[in-house]
Amino acid sequence: MSDSQPDFVGEHDIDQTTLDIIESTLSNTRYEMDRVVETTAISPVIREQSDQFPLIADAKGRMVMGQFGSAIDTILENSAFEREDLEDGDVIATNDPYMCAGAVSHTPDMLLLRPIFYEDDLIGFSSQWGNLMDVGGKTPGSMPVQAGTIFEEGMRLPPVKLYKQGEFDSELLQTFAHNTRLPNHAEADIKALAAGTKAAETRVHELCDRFGKETYVEACDAILDRTRDGMIDLIHEFIPEGERYTFADYVDDDGMGNGPIKLHLEIYREGETVYLDWTGTDEQVPGTVNFLLNEQMFKMFTGVFLIMAFDPLLTFNDGYYDLFDVTLPEGSVVQPEFPAALGNRLPMMARQFDVLQATFSKLIDDFSVAGSYGTSPNLVYAGTDSEGNDFQMLEILYGGIPARPGGDGLDGHSWWPLFRTVPAEYQEAYYPLTIDEYSTRTDTGGAGEFRGGHGITKVYTFEEDGAITFQDDRAHTYPWGVDGGQHGQTSEKKLIRTDGTEEELPSKVENVAVQAGDKLVFSTAGGGGLGDPVERDPDVVATEVERGLISEVTAREEYGVVLDDDGAVETTATEERRNEIRSNRDEPDAFDYGPLPDNETLEAQIANERREFANRDN
Amino acid sequence: MSYNIGVDVGGTFTDVIVFDEDTHELTIDKVLSTPKNPSEGVVHGIAEATTKADTSLSEVELLFHGTTVVTNMLLEETGARVGLITTAGHTDILHLARAWTPGPLYGWMGMEKPEPLADLVDTRGVAGTIDSPTGEEVEPLDEAAVREAVRELEAAGVESVTVALLNSYLNPAQEERVREIVSEEAPELPVSISSEIVPEYGEYERTLTTVINDYARPTVIGYLEDLDNSLADAGSTATMNIVRSDGGLMSSKAAKERPVELALSGPSGGVVGAAAIATKKGTPDVLTLDMGGTSTDVSLVESGTAETTRQTKVGYREFTSRSVDVNTVGAGGGSIARVQLNGALQVGPESAGADPGPACYGQGGEQPTVTDANVVLGRIPPSVQLGGRMELDRQAARDAVATVADDRGSTVEEAAQAILDIVNENMHGALRVVSVERGYDPREFGLVAFGGAGPMHANALADVMDAYPLIVPPGPGVMSAFGFLTSDIQNEFSETYLETEEDITGEDVYEKLHDLKGEAGSWLASEGVDEDAHSFDYFAECRYFRQDIQMSIPVTIDNLRSEAGLAEIKNDFEARHDRQFGFSLDAPLEIANLRVIGKGTVQGVTIEEEELTASDPSDAVIDSNDVYFDGDNYETPVYDRARLRPGNEIEGPAVVTDNDSTVVVQPDHRATIDRYGNIEINRGEDQ
């Protein structure tokens, strides 16, 4: 633990029930902020995919409620004004990750921060950020694959006041929007985010009206303290002291031929402090997969894992941040230096979660989680249609959720909460394409007593000439299995041209020209399995074969389940087959990383794939 | 002599109200529900109630029937085996479920995802393509594949079939053709097509909603046929009206076609009834609070009309069906209080249910519940037997609440007060969602409280929200059955429009709405409503181009043809957007859907008005005891509601006992009995 305890630790002069009421009101407010943004924004990414993040903080900028890495101090430090310059009705905007310590981690994420005043005193902040459709830069969607610096990733606002004392600076917004490909979207979405922060302000004012300002401020302290107490209990119960646990995993590549890229984490506890050390992680890469990991955000991720695994009712907030000590090596892929490009940080962000899960799987007995589909795959299709109208579609896709303690992974679901697919009928109505298929990829989730979730395949037929940009991962590395569970299958991308020629594409490409009639087959990775597949209930395997989620071959080869002509389990043959599997195999490792070649070979494969793609006839 | 009857089938009880059209008298009866064969309980209840009202079934003219049969079927997953025919390439639609996982981060770790209501094994994809947005058929339907799919599904044992094809909202022809083929191949299987159930874009929700329809259909068809037959056998010639989730009525025949519309049939009745009572009383803007044993339903009524929503949620499933906008929280009399590891007190959503029930029931329940807290604080006086059925075990209630007191280091009374404060706060949160979050100021609304536990908690809620008057109607425990009697025949007809203001004129919108009105009129006629009893409400669901909201803007149809054209709609939309979200945009208006609600007025009940008498209520005092309010015990009189007369005035604190609930009047409040028999509670003058 750091030398001094945070100032909110101690006795709180507040009635318990009042505290409970304020906590539950703030908790509801956090969801209300999301609802306000979702319903008023116009980008499908915000509307349908819930890609926005609320925060309510105290006057010192500590998150009391929300889902965020608060970096309010850093934002103010990087602005032209002092804390004393903040006034009622101000709203600060920034989308520069380097100006907010990575609280937003790529340029399309616009962050709005509203100081909340009551009776002329600053009593807190509310903040919300969301993914804009476009902020300019070299590719539609502003997430280029091949960029060397953040200057290629669009227009950046340093922390500036978008509203001054409630007055909206329309010239500033105009200037920003003018630099994007979709100025109307930018304007509407930013206003929606501001409305979200306003909703929080209104609720906080109501709480102050009802209970008094002092009580509200005291409640914020008590809520932080409560969470801290809960986390101390969790740490003592689940994180053994003394031993050091490490895990390493890889992001495939940076989209420019460099990879695999190693993430290495060590976790250990001394007293009440948990050390989380990313030393050993690879240096930042030339491409855009660098992830400026906000230290507070990573503390939140770590705490949330423990909370969701063992005490889901505990509020998560900045209260426990002094209990975690995080090392983020400067110049590494998790702490790149300005002006490294950051546009495609999603594979790194997702892998960081996989590594965290794996390290916890090692250190907590009887609690393991497998590896995931490895990013939030996304696709941009843009161009000008035959009537001269510009179009630009951005979509996030999903894959196999890992097998989890006590249950299968989900097929084609989102590891990030509350995301939803964009309806095919929406896409077909508003964009020149058809969705020919959206299906589960049979057998792509790792086998296990608990099966990994399957990836999905989505097939698009483009109806206008244009260009596509997408990023995915886990095309070279496998979502690992754990405790005898097997690895999941990799992702794949294929273009089928109108003349029938097929073209395999790497997982990250930018501005690939497509003609009307071309098809894109976008397949995402599965999730890893958990536990021994031959321990899986044979009837469940049979049902999954009948549903087409598992092939009969996999049932027999991996699960040792033999089915008769009607699809029912042949008990004796299954028992024999399972015994045969058991006797013919080696004792499984704790993790199944899949048939990975050695690092040098993999490096060469990745470099070669990129070279061939760059030199392809087009 | 003629009578109308409202029947509300709940999970435990079936409530029946008989209204005598000549004397305007109401007779209330309650019998046990018969979940295994629900029509049995209904027939039994009607027989008992008509006897009690000194009449017979043959004298009954109109029946108004609401039921939780579909709700429970969804919650307990006891519906039919449904076959799903969808577009090839999209058969995993329900399995993939839009990829949604719950919040917060790592929500997927504990997510429990129920199986799709149409199993993948019973799902078939067929070729055939409708272009979007033109709606033209660009690839014909593979009829041979459809035929084979139907044969396979029938052989496999499905009990009903859903047809849900991509883009059918633009052109239903292929779905209609599939339905014909199903009828040819398997004439006995009920079949629904998605373009009829939800004629709107959004394939997942449309498919899910239609599958839910077919999941419920075989049971509902059987149930309503049994009911019709049993009633006919018993000599009934009454017209059966079934209550929909939106509080409107439809015929038994229509209900068999669209049982998904019954998903919230039960709770809608209370809201509609509360709206009718509040309107009659001259306070047509009210919040409603229906607090039962395990949960509380709240909603908002504006100008006498209940707010409705297009998204209906039952358990995990959210689908597209119009319902009264009821927000449900797990807060009821049976909600269990527990102190979390970090000291925070949590009340609900876990409930002690009916068995063992709260500790005070003396059936072995040991965990402290909201009812136990009310007993400890004296709000359920010793003279009351809960529901008229049970002797209360006051010591057991005290012992249970003492566990919370121990954990919090407080007195038992303080712990009980804390339990009430928290459960009230949970309901307050729910009321905020339907009011403040939607741009309504609760201070401009009254509050109508009902359900077994509502009248006990409502005064505290009215106080914190400043929502007065608080109205407790007569018979708060059978409010739904009463509400059914106040319903009208109603259905909505909608069409996806997705046009922006630049591309259309007022005349265009007029034409579309006029066509929808035609459909609504034909439906009303087919439901047996005379033309002079038809009325229509018109709505445009608006947003800024590409937003996700659909704000329902009421349209005066004839104004569309005037100079103003669409301006009236746009102005109204912008005003509402600004009121709710605090900003407007320089962006075009998009009309996402057009909607017409056709209503046929049915006179089920008349609310009686009585003369006010003297203000002195002392004749109704039956007892007096100590009741704890915010830190102090008050000597509190107990009144018998049956003896209170219109005009009586009661100073708080007071407790009024009724046969199915207890009304608590807080200190510094005054209750009066109004001319309709409602208890109206306001803050005292000194407040």
UniProtKB/TrEMBL annotation, chain A:
Biased-composition ranges for Basic and acidic residues?
574-588
Q: Which residues form the Hydantoinase B/oxoprolinase domain?
A: 15-533
Q: Which GO terms describe its cellular component?
A: cytosol
| Record-linked Pfam families | Hydantoinase_B
One of the GO biological process terms: glutathione metabolic process
Residues covered by region (Disordered):
571-599
Q: Name one GO molecular function term.
A: 5-oxoprolinase (ATP-hydrolyzing) activity
Instruction: State what protein this is by name.
Output: N-methylhydantoinase B 2
What is the taxonomic lineage of the source species? Archaea, Methanobacteriati, Methanobacteriota, Stenosarchaea group, Halobacteria
